[in-house]
Structure formats: structure tokens, C-alpha cells
Specification:
Helix content: 40-55%
Distance between the termini: 30 Å
Bound molecules: adenosine-5'-triphosphate
Radius of gyration: 24 Å
Number of strands: 11
Number of domains: 3
Strand content: 5-15%
CATH architecture of the largest domain: 3-Layer(aba) Sandwich
Oligomer: single chain
Largest sheet: 5 strands, parallel
Length: 312
Amino acid sequence: MSLPPVGDPSLLIFPEADKSPLSIRAKALVFIDPRTRQLRQEVERLASLPVPILIQGETGTGKELLARHIHRSSERPGLFVALNCSGLSPNHGEAELFGYAAGAHQGAPSSRAGWLGSANGGTLYLDEIADLPLALQAQLLSVLETGEAWRVGATQPIPVDVRLVAASSVDLWQVVKAGKFDERLAQYLSDGRLQLPPLRERIGDVLPLAEYFLGIYAQRLRLPLPGISLAAQSLLERHDWPGNTRELENVVHFALLVCDGDEIEAHHLNLPAAPRLKRIEQAVTQLLEVGDLDQLAALCELLRRAEQRLAG
Ligand SMILES: Nc1ncnc2c1ncn2[C@@H]1O[C@H](COP(=O)(O)OP(=O)(O)OP(=O)(O)O)[C@@H](O)[C@H]1O
């Protein structure tokens, strides 16, 4: 197991990784699994087009990292500005997002650009966009469509040129159906949709990512670079990764710190021995309690096949 050489299309190297915030520590985007290689092609296609992008994926799958890559590839001259919509102030969300004019409210002697203004000429990354209040959703759409924004308290709009890259860990269309997301904004975002699969569905990325993080942390902590034993590799590939790549990064970081030999062993990973088996056990137990006849028949068939395999 080793990472592809620099220049391989599955490994994107970020030239200015040092400029990224601490929460995004990657120097490269590791895409090795066939599913993420395919995604990579889609990303390259969309990045240079003047379309908004919606990245859907579970927490920790790498949505912000991908958004940063899209911004770099787009070569837009402005900044990449990242905002988590659930962090907007309940009372001053509009001013935070769109800015305010001088004198708009008490204690506002001068005007402020807001997040949108700071991203002028660049990319506004809105994480968890489903958490944006409905009223701001409609306002945001109008700004993006007209290229004009009204700061709170302003008497005239100002021109803005912002590319929106939004992320969501939930299906936006379901939120639309529930009446809590603006259908027109969802439509606007649907031109460039990217689905980042959870790590458990792209097993081919697990060991390359583990090796990559090991390299990063060994270098940063000035520790010798250990290998990963076969048992540890197998455990990494069998784990469910509910926290996705972020969880893998933390697990590898920890393993490196507690590793006392040339290789990371399974017990250094501090992972449950067989999480999937546990889940299967729970599902079967539930089925035995509440399953209907068809489900029980399907279960018997599966158990029969398991028996057959055991018998050799
Ligand atoms: N393909 C990848 N290659 C290298 N590092 C990655 C990759 N994907 C994610 N990471 C790293 O995993 C961590 C989590 O990534 P990121 O913050 O982009 O996830 P996210 O989906 O935006 O999470 P959240 O939904 O919680 O905001 C970061 O440290 C990031 O650098």
C-alpha cells in the first residue's frame, strides 16, 4: 500500500496549504477509490464553469476541502469565505451575511461588508445551508441572481459578484418538501450537484488516506514513519467510520502517538473490534422480534448461505 506519486490525477496537491485554517489541515485531496476518482472528474468539469455548486455528504467527508479545491481551480481572484449557516446570529443574521450601512443600528458608526461582501470576486462557502433562515434564503437567491446586494439600512444596492458553493449533510429536497427550504434556491443550486460518498462506501480511499495522514502527522510531530500491520489495515477497512475522514484522521493521529514499534497494530487504533458485526446482530435481533414472514424467510435464506460457506 502506498500513495500514488505526485502528479497522479487521484492525488491533488494544494500549493498553499499553509494558508488554510487549522481545521482544514490537508495538503492534498486523496481520491483513490473508483467512486471518488469519478467524482474528481465531475469536480474538474464543474470548477471552471460559472455555476453554483451544492456538495452533499455526511459530516467529515471532506466537503469544505473540496469547496476550497473548487475555488482554487476556478481561479476567481477574490477570497474563499467559509461560513457555517448554523453559526449565524439569530437576531443579526441579515447584517452578518449582507453587511450593514453606517448608522444602520446603534453602535454602527461605519459600514461593514458582511460575509457576502468579503467574498466579492471570490467564493462564498455556506456550510449546512439548510440551516439558513428561510427569509435569508430568498434574499440570498435574489443577490446571486441580480448581482446586487442591499446592506442593512442602505439606501441603494451595491454590485456583488460571488460564486456560491453550498454544502449540506441532509437531502435539501426533503427539507424543501418539509417547507423549510426555498424551492427556488434548491433549484438554483441543482446545476452543480456533487455527492461525496461516506467513507464506508469508498473503502478504496481508507488505507491511502490512513497512510497519507500518518505521513502528515509523523512529519509534523517529528516521529519516525511507522507501517500499518495487516491486522490494523483490515480493521481500518472494516470500520464503519460514522465520523468519516475526520474520524480516520483522529484515529491515525492517536495511533501514531501510542505506537511503540515499527508498525501500527490493531490495538493502537482504539477501534471496536467488529462494529459491523454488532450492527448486523442488532438488526437480526430486531427482525426476529418484529419482522414479518417474508423478512424472516429472507433471513433464513441468508443463514442457509452462511452455513453453506462455513461447510466449505
Ligand atoms: N479526500 C481527502 N484527502 C485528504 N484529507 C481529507 C480528505 N477529505 C477530508 N479530509 C480531511 O478530513 C477533515 C474533515 O474534512 P472537512 O472539514 O472538509 O469535512 P466536512 O465534510 O466539511 O465536515 P463538516 O460537515 O463537519 O463541516 C479535514 O481535516 C480534511 O482536511
